[in-house]
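Memo to structure team: turn this sequence into structure tokens by end of day. - J.P.
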Amino acid sequence: MKGVLSRGVAALALSLAALSAHAAQAPTCEVDRPIKFSGLNWESNLLMAGIERFILEKGYGCKTQVEQGETLAMLAALQRGDVDITPEVWPGQIEGAWEKATGSGKVIGVGHVFDAGEGWYIPRYTAEKFPDLKKASDLVRHKDAFRDPEDPKRGRIFGCPAGWACGTLNENLMKALKLQDDFVMFAPGAGAAQKAAIVSAYKRKRDVVFYYWTPTALVGGLDLVKLELPPFDQKAYTCMTDPKCTDPVATEFKPNPVVTGMNAAFAQQAPQVKAFIEKVNMPAPVIDDTLGWLEKQSAEIDDAVAYFFKTHGDTWKAWVSPDVAARVSAAL
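Reply from structure team:
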């Protein structure tokens, strides 16, 4: 009887130890409220937000939510603390606003998410039809090929969706190239509308010229030619990012090492979250593959997030500790 009792006590002790170990392994978030993400409405940002939210929820025990908005509005929200994390900030595209935000001490840029680019593109079939159309400035001779349906005397360039920061860049670039009398810079209502218009024209072999950025499924999935611009000049580019630029000079778009924007006070409150975000890096082949899968499958962002986790484990597991990776893997 005594031996049975001793074994029972030992078994209970082991059970309590196991429960204690399990409790110790259970994730506890550093903040007791939902972590708020900027929901900028383009594919790569939505993908990054989905990936980071899943890791924070399943690996760190946090709650998250998304606040929808455009680039500059979300930058202001980041300064105020209305959002905590913007997964994808292109500092070179919003130079003045970004310098002001980081200079205030209320916003920091962390990590190196990926390298992004921008440009004006035409389909290869258009480039072959007009072999002299190599530079953006050459468009002036071909406005009839890109006739604007609402203003047939001018051509149409598909620019940024309304409210995006790149709208200022494109408007100033058009002025710098002296195209404003011959072309309309058309601003679609949303990123989805911009993409749909481009893909529709491409499928029907219609001539189209448009602004787009990389990495994106669209640029990777279509056979395109990037129009040439003058070599990059920092002074000219700084003016082009300014809505009040009075005498814009044409220059190539600035290469953009993309960072994550964080509210500085939040970063201090959540050092583990900051340490994770600092390590987030998407190699070009990985993000191109994931966005390409999204495009080819006509899938939703959540599906692409799941595809990323299952296909590119070596990438995301390098961002977190083994115990966090184990919890995330268990949740897939």
